[in-house]
Description:
alpha+beta, Beta-Lactamase, Arc Repressor Mutant, subunit A, five-stranded antiparallel β-sheet, four-stranded mixed β-sheet, 17 helices, 47% helix, GAF-like_dom_sf, GAF domain-containing protein
Amino acid sequence: MSPTASHSGEAELSDPWVALEPGSDPLERVRVLRRAHETFTEAGTVPRPVRSVVADSWRRSARAGVGPDGTASVELTDGDLGSYRAEHPLARVMPLFRELMGTFASDGEHLLAVCDAQGRLLWVEGHAGTRQKADGMNFVPGARWAESAVGTNAPGTAVALDRPVQVFAAEHFIRRVQPWTCAAAPVHDPRTGRLLGAVDITGGDWLAHPHSLGFVQAVARAAESQLALLTPAPTTTDTLGLTTLGRDEALLMAGGRKLRLSRRHSEIVVLLSRHPEGLTGDELLCALYEDESVTPVTLRAELARLRRLLGAGLLGSRPYRLAVPVESDIAVVERGLGTGAVTAAARAYAGPLLPGSQAPEVVRLRRRLADGLRAALVARRDPDLLADWAHAPWGEEDLDVWRTLAAIRPTAPVRARLKELESEQSAPPGWAGH
């Protein structure tokens, strides 16, 4: 690509996930990005040379109320940070991260960082001088670097998108972060597919090279492989593992196989997992379809396809039922709420149940689960748990949670967001907004 990068007719990057292609002039690219960032913050439009992944992230950042002159807030310190890190699944692969990335980070004057699924930094290690500089922007353990809190950045955007991402210089949304470049990749629980967090490398312009993105991807895959070795094998194969929260297509672990279900099959498995005694065809029709004109033939066809996917013996009929027990992330959250283990329930809640589903019974279950958890969080009044909910996509407009959070942790950003929400929600119908 041309190093000028400033002409409106310039070709896009051949790989939109790579920040800077080999041969590009990083200084000129920085100048182009700074002008684009100024245009966006002043006019709300994104000039064409900005990568689509960055443009989309800038828009999400602005919608979340992030300001370009903001800074990250430190939410966990001292003992709270230590105990949280010790219990986090990624603690088991920190020796691997250090082995694979530690020397690279120190020798290259970079930082190795690991965050949780909410974008909170758990570990920041590496070159001492670089760490000292990073302290100035609160790139420190315990700080929240979620995209919804500090805008576009590699670890925060990686967990927001659940995919590897590279962020170069002025692609960062907050100005004080723009001297930095970073690349991060998400890490998942190899058994359930649940997002655990991300591993990140942060430093200078050199990290904009495609190799750094490939490097963190390889490290993340190695960590998932290590976690698979460290995770005890199930004692029995006659249990299904179902992951449904925060995803439109459920993941099903069946006999050592990981199956990604279609949305309709996801809904069926969720409903059958809630009714081990089984459901009749009429009961399933009412639970699944808003449109009463859907015929039993349509449902039988879906069930036949699901039976072929699951394999022999797992889906029974008359009534329709799953032939083996199901362990689901829904049940984990419900058990936590039922026993008063609100922290465990909140950590297990990766988002709304099948958020795109309009199946009546799934909608009711989704609302009941979310309402039960948010009520428990408001009653518990733990500022970190409330902040996790408030900064998540499903909690950005939750007025009760923001009011509770403001009463406990009345920081300027929290008060500003609460004021904005109260203004929006008290506006008369038909108000055009701002």
